[in-house]
Amino acid sequence: MGTPSSPRPGRPIFAHLYSALAPLSDLGGVSELRRELLSGLSGRVVEVGCGTGVNFRHYPRAVTTLVAVEPEPALRRAAARAARRVDLKVEVVDATAETLPIDDRSQDAVVASLVLCSVSEPATALAELLRVLRPGGELRFLKHVRGGRIGGAIQDLLDPAWALLAGGCHLNRPTAENLAEAGFALTAVRRVPGRTFGVRTPAPAVLIGRALRPGA
Question: What is the value of pTM for the model shown?
Answer without folding.
Answer: 0.81
